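Ops channel
N.P.: pipeline sanity check, posting one input/output pair.
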C-alpha cells in the first residue's frame, strides 16, 4: 500500500496575505492500493473511495466529484490516462477540519496531485506538481507550504501572454464538473512550467502555534468576496513593512515578542473579515505579550475562522482567554498546540 501524507497549513500569518504559509502538524492521509487482479473494473473511473474523519457525512465519494480524486484525474488526463488504473482503492483519512482556515482544500489538492503522480507512474518533481496545484488553488500560500513544508513565502510568476492564458482558464475547465463517472474525452489545459516561485524561511524551534478552531465554517470563497478591490497606499505599506520584519523575526532565538506582535498586525484582510467572524477585532486584541507572557503574536489563520496564536509557553492560559471571548459570542471551539511540519508532503510504501 502507498501512503500519501500532506500537512495542514495556516496562510497569511497576519500581514502576508496570499504570500506566506506555515505547514502544521495535522496530516491528511491518502492510502492507495491497486488491485491488479481486477483488469476490468465496474466502478466508474476504476476508483473506489472510502473516507473517514472530518466531513465524512458529506464529502462526495465519486471519483469525479471528490476534490482529492478529481485533482488526480486532472493530472492523469494531462498525461493521456483517461481514468485510474483498474482497480484503484483510495482510502482518505482526514483529521483537518474543513473550511476553518487550516488549508484543508490545499492539502486535498496537494494529495490529489501526488495521487495522480503515483498511480500514473508519472515521475513528476515536487516543483512540477506544484504547477498542477496552482492551476486549481490559485493563491500559492497553502499549497506551497503543504507541498514543501515549514514556513514558506511564495509568489506567482508573471507569465508570458500564452502561458498566462493557460493559467487564467476558468477553474471549471481545469476540473470539469462531475459527469457521473463518464469520461467526457476533453483534454484539460496543461499547467505552464514554474508558475510559482517560493523560498523556505527558518523558524525558531521554540515557537509553537496554538490553533483555536471555532465550530463553524467560513468558505475561502466567501472570505475573499468581502475583500475590497483596491487598497490605500498607507495600508499596503503598513503590511509590507511588517511582513519584511516578520519573516526574519520568526527565525531568531530567543524570539522578540514585542517585535513579532507588532509585525503580525494586518490591514489588508482581517479588518474586512470581521463581518464573518463574530467578535474578531476584540479577539485579536484580547491577548498581548504583556497580558499573556509567552505569546508572540495572534492572527486569523488563512481565511478563518480559526485563530492562530504563536507562543513559546503558557499555551493553556492563552487559549483559555480566546475560548472565553468566542464563548461570549455563543461560539464553542476546539484547540490544539501544533508544530511546523517541516517535511511537507510525503509518499511512502507501507
Ligand atoms: N480531504 C478532502 N476530501 C475532499 N474534499 C475536501 C477535502 N478537504 C477539503 N475538501 C473540500 O474543500 C472545502 C474547504 O475548502 P476551503 O478553501 O473553503 O477551506 P479550507 O481550505 O479548509 O480553509 P483555508 O483555505 O482558509 O485554509 C471543503 O468544504 C471540501 O469541499
Ligand atoms: N490567503 C488566502 C488563504 C485562504 O486559503 C486567504 O486568506 O484568502
Amino acid at each position: 500500500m502507498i501512503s500519501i501524507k500532506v500537512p495542514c497549513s495556516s496562510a497569511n500569518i497576519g500581514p502576508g496575505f496570499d504570500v506566506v504559509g506555515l505547514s502544521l502538524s495535522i496530516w491528511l492521509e491518502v492510502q492507495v492500493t491497486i488491485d491488479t487482479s481486477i483488469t476490468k473494473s465496474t466502478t466508474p473511473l476504476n476508483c473506489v473511495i472510502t473516507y473517514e474523519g472530518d466531513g465524512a457525512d458529506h464529502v462526495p465519494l465519486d471519483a469525479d466529484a471528490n476534490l482529492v480524486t478529481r485533482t488526480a484525474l486532472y493530472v492523469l488526463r494531462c498525461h493521456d490516462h483517461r481514468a485510474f488504473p483498474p482497480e484503484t482503492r483510495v482510502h482518505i483519512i482526514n483529521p483537518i477540519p474543513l473550511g476553518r482556515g487550516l488549508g484543508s482544500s490545499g492539502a486535498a489538492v496537494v494529495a490529489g496531485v501526488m495521487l495522480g503522480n503515483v498511480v500514473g507512474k508519472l515521475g513528476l518533481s515536487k516543483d512540477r506538481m506544484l504547477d498542477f496545484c496552482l492551476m486549481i488553488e490559485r493563491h500559492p500560500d497553502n499549497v506551497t507550504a503543504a507541498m514543501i513544508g515549514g514556513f514558506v513565502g511564495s509568489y506567482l510568476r508573471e507569465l508570458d501572454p500564452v502561458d498566462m492564458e493557460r493559467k487564467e482558464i476558468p477553474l471549471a475547465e481545469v476540473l470539469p464538473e462531475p459527469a457521473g463517472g463518464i469520461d467526457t474525452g476533453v483534454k484539460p489545459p496543461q499547467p505552464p512550467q514554474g508558475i510559482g516561485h517560493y523560498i523556505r524561511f527558518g523558524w525558531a524551534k521554540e515557537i509553537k502555534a496554538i490553533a483555536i478552531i471555532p465550530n463553524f465554517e467560513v468558505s475561502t470563497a466567501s472570505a475573499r468576496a468581502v475583500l475590497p478591490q483596491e487598497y490605500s497606499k498607507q495600508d499596503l505599506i503598513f503590511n509590507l513593512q511588517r511582513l519584511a520584519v516578520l519573516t526574519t523575526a520568526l527565525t531568531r532565538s530567543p524570539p522578540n515578542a514585542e517585535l513579532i506582535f507588532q509585525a503580525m498586525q494586518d490591514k489588508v484582510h482581517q479588518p474586512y473579515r470581521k463581518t464573518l467572524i463574530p467578535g474578531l477585532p476584540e479577539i485579536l486584541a484580547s491577548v498581548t505579550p504583556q497580558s499573556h507572557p509567552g505569546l508572540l503574536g495572534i492572527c486569523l489563520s488563512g481565511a478563518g475562522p480559526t485563530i492562530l496564536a504563536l507562543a513559546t509557553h503558557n499555551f493553556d492560559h492563552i487559549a483559555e482567554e480566546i475560548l472565553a471571548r468566542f464563548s461570549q459570542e455563543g461560539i464553542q471551539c476546539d484547540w490544539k498546540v501544533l508544530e511546523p511540519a517541516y517535511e511537507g508532503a510525503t509518499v511512502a510504501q507501507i
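N.P.: looks fine end to end. The chain has eleven helices and eleven strands.
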